[in-house]
């Protein structure tokens, strides 16, 4: 049994900080800063922020009500549409009602367990491509490396390996687009037009434009039959059967952007945090390397059954550092959550970051303990939700899990990831990533 390990989290003031201070001060640093101790022990937080009423749900029963039982009454918030529209339009992640249902039906089969299984060779290819560039004793930013690798996976698995989607230019523009979100969010909340004021905001907008232009070209290649069969070709064909041409083309670009972005950045963060946690716990890393070696001997295709320790480590990593630390809904009709009245237009905010570390739900909530995932019994269905829940649960959950396990198993079998002892701080406004990257030393296993 390895020693208990409490990985870093932002400081927690004993009492809630004033709304404006949390919002413009601590909270502006990263989405997970500025929460007081109270947020990790209470059942519900209601706040007024810049004219919005926000309910932060911390009781898994209420989360279940919103995401599952009364899902039809809770849509994606207007502000999310406004923020994400320039980049992912009305694709699967940002649509509601019949348009959402139709798009979910179109893509669902490509993400069913059997279909994910057929992608396993692409995951292995991407793992090998990354390792080809590593040298013994080298210091590597594993956050960047994980991003490049998951980008390669998505390009290979969904877009026929299109090189335009794996370039360093694409990576830089995506990073800029994500960085630009915090300013865009602030402008949207203050109800100001989206004219970025800072260099970071302007770089973000250039990143969005680059992405839309590149993905329009990628879609047009499929539209005009210049590319053989791949996931995107299937989406283009299905959309053309159901919608007028102009709308079908716009939705095809929206979904290309949705799957390209949602499909790699989150998984990259899950991989990065897992590598950080394993670099800090070398004994556990050794155990996982042995498990991976045993599972992969015999041809390189590990089954999930053979990677049960690694699976638990990944789950615990996504509990402590959920790649999507928060997601929101907006009430359509009046509703009630326990003793709380929800009015039409209220924002209902679900924070895996808080729920995953809540004192009423977890023993030693800040401690890394993979044994907590040995059995499912005793856990509420909605207390562990890295992939969301209900009908809008992440369509790529199975894909991401098998992908992450495959990449990690192949990497751990050949390489040791060594901590340099540098402090790591959670950063990021939309997804949760180590601020400034994650530099680790790579040592080749003999
Ligand atoms: C560890 C990796 C991932 C995490 C933690 C993650 C997390 C999430 C979460 C929390 C949601 C729900 C958001 C909400 O309810 O508002 C979501 C939705 C979604 N995810 Fe993921 N995701 C991951 C990987 C992927 C991958 C690999 C893909 C595609 C290849 C993907 C595509 C999507 C899409 C399209 C949606 C919207 C689904 C819908 O609304 O019907 N995700 N994801």
TrEMBL record:
MF-aspect GO terms: heme binding; iron ion binding; monooxygenase activity; oxidoreductase activity, acting on paired donors, with incorporation or reduction of molecular oxygen
What organism is listed for this UniProt entry? Sphingomonas xanthus
Q: Where does heme bind?
A: 394
Q: Does the keyword Oxidoreductase apply?
A: yes
- What is the protein's given name? Cytochrome P450
Cofactor entry: heme
Q: Does the keyword Kinase apply?
A: no
Report the sequence similarity comment from the record.
Belongs to the cytochrome P450 family.
Which UniProt keywords are given for this protein, alphabetically ordered? Heme, Iron, Metal-binding, Monooxygenase, Oxidoreductase
Under the heading Pfam families, the entry gives: p450
